[in-house]
TrEMBL record:
Database matches in PROSITE patterns: TPR, TPR_REGION
Family as reported in the entry's similarity comment: Belongs to the Ycf3 family.
TPR repeats mapped onto the chain: 35-68, 72-105, 72-105, 120-153
Its membrane topology: Peripheral membrane protein
Function recorded in the entry: Seems to be required for the assembly of the photosystem I complex.
GO cellular component, as recorded: chloroplast thylakoid membrane
Main location: plastid
Keyword terms of this UniProt record: Chloroplast, Membrane, Photosynthesis, Plastid, Repeat, Thylakoid, TPR repeat
Entry-linked NCBIfam families: PRK02603.1
Highest taxon in the source lineage: Eukaryota
A Pfam family the protein falls into: TPR_1
GO biological process, one term: photosynthesis
Protein name: Photosystem I assembly protein Ycf3
Length: 169
């Protein structure tokens, strides 16, 4: 049984019913409808920490979805799963792919910056100050790009950029 048919709370059931009605009303192909169903099931599984199930649904959605914009969100969510699993290199690959299809995903840039910042912190702990600076510089670039379209977001990143004097570079 698809995850969307086994929702446990009324909000999820309501969302599922509304999404199903919209899918029937909006002129889309059967493939697009199936892709959306897999995407929705992936989001549901991901929100419950069921990353393997979420990944399977996202990969199924990727095989069916043809719209680059919609594909960008699927790729972004796959990146989130890899980030949650500590697979940062894979996560970065998926965030890059998402941005190739949709350059207006500041959340992907933010997550890329967080990974780079984390790697900078790791480099410090390993006694590699030059490497850490390179990672921090890369984090700064991603955060600047994430902040540019929405200056009221990512306040902590903005503070970090100011404190480390990377905000104007």
């Amino acid at each position: 049984m698809p995850r969307s048919q086994r929702n446990d709370n009324s909000i999820d059931r309501t969302f599922t019913i509304l999404a199903d009605i919209l899918l029937q009303l909006i002129p889309t192909t059967d493939g697009e409808k199936e892709a959306f169903t897999h995407y929705r099931d992936g989001m549901s599984a991901q929100s419950e920490g069921e990353y393997a199930e979420a990944s399977q649904n996202y990969y199924k959605a990727m095989r069916l979805e043809i719209d680059p914009y919609d594909r960008s969100y699927i790729l972004y969510n796959i990146g989130l799963i890899h980030t949650s699993n500590g697979e940062h290199t894979k996560a970065l690959e998926y965030y890059f792919q998402a941005l190739e299809r949709n350059p207006f995903l500041p959340q992907a840039l933010n997550n890329m910056a967080v990974i780079c910042h984390y790697r900078g912190e790791q480099a410090i702990q390993q006694g590699e100050p030059e490497s850490s600076e390179a990672w921090f510089d890369q984090a700064a670039e991603y955060w600047k790009q994430a902040i540019a379209p929405s200056p009221s977001n990512y306040i902590e990143a903005q503070n970090w950029l100011k404190i480390t004097r990377r905000s104007k570079e």
